[in-house]
Amino acid sequence: MKYNFLIIGLVIGLVVGSVAVWFAKPPEIVEKVVEVPVGGEELEALQAEFEEYKESVGFHGANIGGGLALPNQWVDTTKYAKDSPWKIGVSIPHAKGIPFLSLYVAEIMDEAKNYPITEVMVTYANDDLEKQMSDVRYLIERGADLIILCPLGAGMKGIVEELYEEDYPIVIDWADPFTDKYVANTSVNNCLFGEYNALWLEEQINEKLGGEAKIIMMSAVEGYTNTVERDMKLEEMVERNPGIEIVAKDYGGYLASEAKKKMEDMLAAHPDFDAIWSTGGWMGSGCVDALVEAGYDPSEILMVGEWSIGFMRKIVNYDIPAHVSGHAPYTGRYSLQVAVNILRGMPVVHSTIHPPGDYDREEIDMAIEKYGFLPDDAYVGSLISEEELREILEEFM
User: Fold this and answer.
1) Across the strands, what pairs with 184?
2) Which domain holds residue 318?
3) Total count of domains within the chain
4) CATH number of domain containing 351
5) Looking at residue 14, what is its pLDDT?
6) 240 with 116, same domain?
7) Helix (H/G/I), strand (E/B), else coil: 15
8) DSSP category for residue 299
């Protein structure tokens, strides 16, 4: 299969059960044998196959394993080994009903068909730290053998460390909990995410505006790891360019509707500007809406953000000079593969940080041509077929 490049351990077996999630019908039992390369020529061949795949779908910005694995990063997981079948918990920090989250969970569910997993239990914390901590405990009470945790940030450090001391296995995804006391981390590199956007913006300002520009900054969630790490790269870029300044900053919570309201206020207070920085999520789309309603020509404004379909669609429609970075939903598959290897007692890499997607304007055009059927709040970067995507996202379309 085209996504075999993600698997890092030997996985040979008969899948004997069905997968159930609280809000989905259990899929058919599937029998599958997967051969996995462990290095050398086999890994190089698979990398070449992946490059061919990326070229075919217009996806750029990830490698096998996602990051650099040093010898001292390998973790002995024999103490976490359990007889199958298994139950997996997934703790999502945000609210249910967002296409990206639906795709992320769908990728996990689809991948789970390949293993002796009887249940995938998913909780949504609604951006509430206390609720996410409660969710984690609830998943354990419900019998989850391992939890894939997408933490709200540093606030989850305590419970992550507590579970580590209790020898309970956690796989971290999405954000850094500011501790290394977990079994494995499969997150996207948010610093690199910000760096891609910041470098493009710096280049455009130097080439088109003579090195001088005023930036309106639409940040996301104050104190949230993803927000801090991405925004840091803009701040570093501004620091090394004395002609560039941030004239306004507010937080849009990754939401298009909230970003639109906050952008309207910032436009009223700072009508003279050259560029807009959107930290990510769906805020770029809301920023464009605010520009249009305020009478601005978006094609005259430099913009950066995340690769949501809605934002990229507006970039194309309004001919906006823009760049996007992205977190692909398919990374959920890799997190589950690591989880399975842990429960089998196989060595795993402690920290495998995936590089984000990286689209310039030409690639944005290509992405909309290919994925334009998706709803505005969806992201590119899924390994699920178009037919299945349409079915999964039907409620949003």
Assistant:
1) 171
2) 190-326
3) 2
4) 3.40.50.2300
5) 25
6) no
7) coil
8) G
- 281 and 296 fall within a common domain: yes
Which strand ranges, in their side-by-side order, compose the sheet holding 184-185?
117-124, 86-92, 146-149, 170-172, 184-185
Identify whether 199 is part of a domain: yes
Structural contact between residues 393 and 378, judged by C-beta atoms closer than 8 angstroms:
yes
* Residue 355, CB-side half-sphere exposure with 13 Å CA sphere: 13
Are 169 and 26 part of one and the same domain? yes
**Does residue 375 lie within any of the structural domains?**
no
How much of the chain exceeds pLDDT 90, in percent?
Answer: 57
What gap in Å lies between CA 60 and CA 70, rounded to an integer? Answer: 24
Residue 336 lies in a domain: yes
Of residues 188, 117, 228, the one with CA closest to residue 334: 188
CA distance 377 to 397: 10
pLDDT, position 7: 34
SS3 24: strand
Tokens at 184, concatenated? 């494995």
- For residue 76, what are the CA distances in angstroms to 7, 136, 336, 350? 18, 24, 18, 10
Q: Are residues 16 and 155 in the same domain?
A: yes
Residues 88 and 182 occupy one common structural domain: yes
**Cross-strand bridge partners of residue 323:** 304
Q: What is the DSSP letter of 207?
A: H
Write the DSSP assignment of 336-362 as a string of letters.
HHHHHHHHTT--EESB-PBPPEEE-HH
Is residue 242 packed enough to be buried (19+ CB in 10 Å), middle (13-18) or exposed (0-12)?
exposed
Q: pLDDT averaged over the chain?
A: 82
12's CB contacts (< 8 A; 6+ apart) are 33, 34, 35
Confidence of residue 278 (pLDDT cuts 50, 70, 90): very high
Does the model's pTM come out above 0.85?
A: no
The confidence score (pLDDT) of residue 70 equals 40
